[in-house]
């Protein structure tokens, strides 16, 4: 994992090649398998690898369909489960994965609109927004950390990912009241 991550950071062709070689399903499987015997360092590295790989290259439809509701809930629960741990190794890597998956869903939703020859008849449901619309009050730490991250982050691409999620949350009826008023004042 370390080798792939470092190689991807130094060679821009590595992450796209990993997606072409169907590494995303295996990575998803490894992250999910880490639930029981989580080595925090390995888990963090797997999350960072998923973020970087999904950030630089568009996932194909088949890979994105493998991300199910239980995986998204797991990521949100991971953030909530360590919300009081100051030295938490999961918050930002996990949040970044959720943000990049949200963008991948947004990209996938444009396929059926922009490409009339697309064979995809049913657009993918954005599982990030779906989870927050159904269970938002259970995952308040995520919202608080997204706002904190937006205020502190210097990486433009990550700021854009956050703004895309905020746009969806504020324009979706089920989630437009997800954030506390005080959090919005901080924003």
Automatic annotation (TrEMBL):
<dbReference type="GO" id="GO:0051666">
    <property type="term" value="P:actin cortical patch localization"/>
</dbReference>
<dbReference type="GO" id="GO:0071933">
    <property type="term" value="F:Arp2/3 complex binding"/>
</dbReference>
<dbReference type="InterPro" id="IPR030125">
    <property type="entry name" value="SPIN90/Ldb17"/>
</dbReference>
<dbReference type="Pfam" id="PF09431">
    <property type="entry name" value="SPIN90_LRD"/>
</dbReference>
<feature type="domain" description="SPIN90/Ldb17 leucine-rich">
    <location>
        <begin position="88"/>
        <end position="187"/>
    </location>
</feature>
<dbReference type="InterPro" id="IPR018556">
    <property type="entry name" value="SPIN90/Ldb17_LRD"/>
</dbReference>
<dbReference type="GO" id="GO:0006897">
    <property type="term" value="P:endocytosis"/>
</dbReference>
<protein>
    <recommendedName>
        <fullName>SPIN90/Ldb17 leucine-rich domain-containing protein</fullName>
    </recommendedName>
</protein>
């Amino acid at each position: 994992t370390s080798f792939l991550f470092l190689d991807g950071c130094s060679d821009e062709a590595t992450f796209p090649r990993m997606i072409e070689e169907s590494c995303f399903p295996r990575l998803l499987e490894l992250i999910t398998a880490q639930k029981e015997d989580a080595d925090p360092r390995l888990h963090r590295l797997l999350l960072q690898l998923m973020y970087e790989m999904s950030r630089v290259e568009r996932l194909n439809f088949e890979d994105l369909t493998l991300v199910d509701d239980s995986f998204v809930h797991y990521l949100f629960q991971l953030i909530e489960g360590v919300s009081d741990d100051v030295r938490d190794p999961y918050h930002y890597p996990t949040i970044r994965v959720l943000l990049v998956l949200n963008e991948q869903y947004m990209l996938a939703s444009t396929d059926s609109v922009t490409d009339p020859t697309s064979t995809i008849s049913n657009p993918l449901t954005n599982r990030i927004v779906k989870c927050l619309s159904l269970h938002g009050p259970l995952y308040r730490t995520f919202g608080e950390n997204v706002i904190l991250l937006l205020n502190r982050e210097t990486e433009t691409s990550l700021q854009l990912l956050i703004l895309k999620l905020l746009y969806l949350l504020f324009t979706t009826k089920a989630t437009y009241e997800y954030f506390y008023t005080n959090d919005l004042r901080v924003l």
